[in-house]
Design brief:
By secondary structure, the chain is α+β, with helices and mostly antiparallel strands. Helices cover about 30% and strands about 30% of the residues. A hairpin with a 5-residue loop joins strand 5 and strand 6.
């Protein structure tokens, strides 16, 4: 981990110097060969035929936004030297991780609303069944129960929260 911290610190120094130095760093085109998501690095086959390991972030992975490119996608890499490089653009994104992704995927609002509407309809149906059922005298509540059960059996459109999370965008 200390080695990774040193690499990140070096990349930060290069990026800070980038804007202030007046030096032009080469931006090179390449294709993603593989991605190491846990280290936020990737192997890139550059247009000149060489292969490099490039960082996907220049900071702490628990902060900020990191784009994880799809394998085979085209990228632009800024090379500070033979060891330090960072992906600055990619044409296909596998997923996006925001602030380390520890809170899970972003909520799909339309899916959430659809399922909340189903819950509301079911609750309204339960309330209606309880309000509309008529108890009969001297039957021990059997008729009341039968009416409620019949009403509740019509409430078949259950909510499904399995599809509510967008796994491609972790926050």
């Amino acid at each position: 981990m200390a080695e990774r911290d040193n690499d990140v610190a070096t990349l930060r120094q290069h990026l800070r110097a980038f804007g202030n130095s007046g030096r032009i760093y080469p931006a090179m085109n390449g294709v993603i060969q593989s991605v190491n998501e846990s280290n936020y690095t990737c192997q890139v086959l550059l247009d000149d035929g060489s292969e490099i390991t490039a960082a996907l972030t220049c900071g702490d992975k628990a902060e900020g936004i990191v784009q994880i490119p799809k394998q085979g996608s085209d990228v632009v890499v800024v090379c500070f030297d033979k060891i330090n490089s960072v992906v600055v653009m990619c044409d296909q994104i596998e997923k996006i991780i925001i602030n380390g992704g520890t809170l899970g995927g972003l909520v799909k609002v339309k899916e959430l609303k659809k399922n909340l509407n189903k819950i509301t309809a079911r609750i309204d149906g339960i309330i209606g069944a309880l309000k509309d059922a008529v108890p009969l005298a001297n039957d021990g509540g059997n008729q009341y129960k039968t009416q409620i059960v019949a009403s509740l059996n019509t409430l078949t459109d259950k909510e499904d929260f399995e599809t509510i999370e967008n796994e491609r965008i972790k926050q």
